[in-house]
Amino acid sequence: MRVLVAPDKFKGSLTAAEVASAVATGLADVHPELDVETLPVADGGDGTVDAAVAAGFQRVRVPARGPTGALVTACYAVRGDTAVVELAEASGLHRLPGAPAPLDATSVGTGDVIAAAIRAGCRRIVLGVGGSACTDGGAGLLTALGARLLDDAGRELPFGGAALARLTTLDLSGLDVSGVDFELASDVDNPLYGLRGAAVVYGPQKGASPDDVETLDAALRHWAAHVGPRFAERPGAGAAGGVGFAAMAALGARMRPGIELLLDLLGFDAALAGAALVVTGEGSLDRQTLSGKAPAGVARAAAAKGIPCVAVAGRCQLSSVDLAAAGISAAYALTDLEPDPARCMADAAPLLRRLAHRVAIDHFSLSS
Predict the structure, then answer these.
(1) What pTM, to 2 d.p., does this model score?
(2) Which fold is adopted by the domain 2-39+267-367?
């Protein structure tokens, strides 16, 4: 009997591959006769490159500029002429060397990674846009790909969203991405600016004060007027501090739900063939899970094939009704075994292995 284990990461504790390994080991402890296949997944946020590598893509390391402009080493994943780029790799909050820099943080490093992939011959760029440190409207990303942003004196603008208010001339003549297909993996539907825009909704998470939010929102409006106002209201324009806007307006990118795009890319449908059960999961099963996060996407894809799906998690805050509506027949949480959240995070792998014993007993007791 075949089981497909397809979890997302347990953030701050285990990668998706580590979660999958622990679950697979626990299932085999109880029923060694099971044919268990692992396929770690992601929804476009941090862990997207790792999931692609686990599915057979090759990891490539390149130099890139971080959100403050300092040099870092970032990774993308490649298979054939397709590159999977994770914005958080170069431009994520975890790349900030110290305090947040809401006005100055830049997406230029993500552009550096994309440029490296294009130079290497990639003609399809899948960009996961979760976890950004910047609210620069994607200006830094375009700069790395050849765009020039000039003030009224003809000087290059410094990095960051606040500087966009001084933009006078946008020169895209050096932006050569012809023949390259861009796809954005994101579940964010916010516009670029306004009450639901990138600065107002996500700026405070990146350290922006109320005054900073006002400054950034005005700068993004000014930026949109130069790049393509009609794209500013599109769902997803506000993704990653406006990277979604720049990608759609200047690169012709198409946006798809993150988990849907990644499951297609990872060959999820083929992996489902012959499975009697799918085990998915993430660190916290909560209301956000129902809004297109990885476990909901996995469960939906499994249900379309008539395959039952259960979930493992660090904690579960969803009712059985919520779970059923998402296509998840049962959920197993580490907190069922260990009430201390700190212990759950520190000992996640062995606890997950024990939790998988319960899954095996509940769903395959007749095969023992």
Answers:
(1) 0.92
(2) Rossmann fold (3.40.50)
